[in-house]
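Progress report, Aim 2. The chain analyzed during this reporting quarter is listed below.
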Amino acid sequence: MRRKISSVVGKNTSGMRLDLWLSSRFNYNSRSKWQELIRNKDVLLNNKSARPSRIVAENDIVELKTNVEKEPDSNTNYTVIFEDENIIALNKPPDLPCHPSGAYFHKTLWYLVVNDLKIKAHIVHRLDRETSGIIVMAKNPAIAKELSELFVKKQIHKTYVAAVHGSFPERHHSMGYLEHFTGSVLLKKRRFVALNENKFKSFSGNEETSETYFELIKEHRGLSLVKAIPKTGRFHQIRATLYSLGFPVVGDKYYGLDETIFLRFISDSMTQEDKKILILDRQALHAKTLDFTLPSTGKPYLFDTEIPLEITSLFND
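Predicted structure tokens for the chain:
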């Protein structure tokens, strides 16, 4: 079965080669694989075939023809931690997309839940593919709407745990803005700018307010285990903030010690030195707790999960 996926080239990504644009935008394939697909005319640019070296421009339309049977592998070992008539709470493993996107469809958390449990599941929030932890799904549209409204009103509370490089302070309150990191070679990379740094900054209007509380849990051999409590829910908020503060997440190919590792990752050319720098083959970020009260029933929910062993083992002798 073939699926078509269309994506529009944005202003910040124009001027790139088509093969580089694809490997950065859809990193489940290497650059060489995208070159092969382009030559096979499985990728169209503005409804026409193109060369891998073709330079894309703003508002160009890139269309992908995807074979579902060639879907990349993912970690499908999720667990159900709670279920009632309204919601289902799951512990998502690392390397599992939450919902269908790009080449992923069958090997996503949403599809697995619907197919394995034979229920209608509605996703109301997400985690990055390499982030593990709690995901809550609604079992009907009314509850999905209710949960979405709770997220908008900031009445769903989450805590994360991250292993980071460096000696983190006992506490840190990060309040400021997230903006596109123009100094990066990576398309979607963001940076956090603290309020005190913004005092004389003129804003473009594209920034998003961001607020996160951090608490140190423990330190060990140059690494820190940190609790993160986000007060806003922005794209890459915790990872971008920690990176900008000088404490990148262990194993993070995008916001880690060396962003060029991500380029080698998507081109299947990571070195042993890259793996040594990463320490883990996943980003050490875990969504540990989530709590809320459902307005329609008045029922409170509190979910907690164990920190994965690969993260806790970094802090053992």
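The chain has a mean pLDDT of 89. The chain has three domains: 2-66, 79-153+292-297, 162-283. These observations will guide the mutagenesis work planned for the next reporting period.
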